[in-house]
Amino acid sequence: xxxxxxxxxxxxxxxxFALPDDTLHSQATTLFRKLVExxxxxxxxxxxxxxxxxxxxxxVWKGEMSEKEAQLARAAIAALPITIEYDPRDRERAxxxxxxxxxxxxxxxxxxxxxxxxxxxxxxxxxxxxxxVNGAKKPKGAPxxxxxxxxx
Length: 152
Fold this sequence. Notes:
Shape: globular
CATH class of the largest domain: Alpha Beta
CATH topology of the largest domain: Rossmann fold
CATH superfamily of the largest domain: 5'-nuclease
Helix content: 40-55%
Radius of gyration: 15 Å
Largest sheet: 5 strands, parallel
Strand content: 5-15%
Number of strands: 5
Distance between the termini: 20 Å
Structural class: alpha/beta
CATH architecture of the largest domain: 3-Layer(aba) Sandwich
Number of domains: 2
């Protein structure tokens, strides 16, 4: 990748990086190291920060994470070179993707719509989303969303 390369991220990948006990932490850490070394920057819709904070808050509330661990995770996220972007047109496309690919919520589709509008790949750990837009659960006749890539 060149110095201008960008990749879209969803909260699942960012959280996998920030939470050492996540099953994909090693893969996410390796991905970020490699891409940052290559000069890649990242973009995401505005909901990324809130979605990450919600997961972290829930873990603290459940007693699965200490306040100190929560602050370390938030600092790891803040250190990533992620540009937060918002365009109201992304909302309409997210709704369209959610309905077309039989998704119960528009959250995940919002990341796909954001990446599509910017012409970048979206990296996710969300297997159900990936299956719905590129795999066996993709509705008949719906085109693949080939820019949605699964981190495994």
